[in-house]
Amino acid sequence: MNNSIVTEFMIMGITQKPELQRVLFFVFLFIYLVAFLGNMLIVIAIIYNTTLHMPMYVLLLALAIVDIICTTSIIPKILETMLTSRKTISYGGCMSQLFFFTWSLGAEMVLFTTMAYDRYVAICFPLRYIAIMNRYMCVALLSIVMAIAVTNSWVHTGLILRLTFCGSNIIDHFFCEIPPLLALSCSPVRINEVMVYVADISLAIGDFILTCISYSFIIVAILRIHTTEGKRKAFSTCSSHLIVVSLYYSPVIYTYIRPASSYTFERDKVVAALYTLVTPTLNPIVYSFRNKDMQAGIRKVFALLKR
């Protein structure tokens, strides 16, 4: 039940300095275009190339879609607040943004773990890979990802909807995120904080540990490769993936493991930008554009566009 008196929120944004806002507008626009077009290119390449209809690329397709939803739910509103004098977002718009952001947050974390498991099976059990990662397994894994993401999003959004906002309506952030909303609530937020801790421990910390375990087995398998070139390529791939995963999990864990009373925008704005802007932009480069099969698939897309 919505007991809120506040009908709209004012988003403070990145900075109040006009000269910096103009610069940041183009920076955020560039980031959004790179993230959106890069991930959209991956989606089109995988859909239209039957050679990429394999478990690894199906998971990449899902990750690209999640990244598109994540950036689209946040950046266009940021650009609007920078370009116009209108700094507000409706209560319903704020809750919708929160829902889609928390959905993409949960989906991305579980997808990272699923992708690490896929690579574990491919490297540690190459002869059994097709049998293990069959179509039914892919559907089951993606269904689990969706179920966890939707449950996570509904729980947090539903708990926020129960809060009363009767005081300040100024969100000291560049989008509607859980910590700044809890800081504005006139209602007790203990249940919200407990559920945030549960989600952070089970999703962020839990998935990060599972991902690291998968890569530990992968590294052990790589060390058994006899050729130096083979080890170098395998380690290069694993290190790139782990860097992106660490860039994503570390700020998420930092942001959500603390009580709402300790939240400060000045300290947390860069941290939030890492998992909302940087990681969705890096994912296409790290996970796809360095892959020869994906490169071939992307070239086919450009070849079709030239016709």
Automatic annotation (TrEMBL):
Residues 38-287 form the G-protein coupled receptors family 1 profile domain. It holds the Pfam family 7tm_4. GO terms for cellular component: membrane; plasma membrane. Gene3D superfamilies: Rhodopsin 7-helix transmembrane proteins (1.20.1070.10). One of its GO terms (biological process) is detection of chemical stimulus involved in sensory perception of smell. Its main location: membrane. The chain crosses the membrane at residues 23-48, 54-76, 136-155, 201-223, 235-257, 269-289. CDD domains: 7tmA_OR13-like (cd15232). SUPFAM superfamilies: Family A G protein-coupled receptor-like. One of its GO terms (molecular function) is G protein-coupled receptor activity. It is found in: Cell membrane. The keyword Transmembrane helix applies. It is a multi-pass membrane protein. Keywords: Cell membrane, G-protein coupled receptor, Membrane, Olfaction, Receptor, Sensory transduction, Transducer, Transmembrane, Transmembrane helix. Coiled coil: none annotated. InterPro entries: GPCR_Rhodpsn, GPCR_Rhodpsn_7TM, Olfact_rcpt, Olfactory_GPCR. Signal peptide: none annotated. Belongs to the G-protein coupled receptor 1 family. PANTHER family: OLFACTORY RECEPTOR. Putative odorant or sperm cell receptor. This is Olfactory receptor family 13 subfamily G member 1. It comes from Sus scrofa (Pig). The gene is OR13G1.
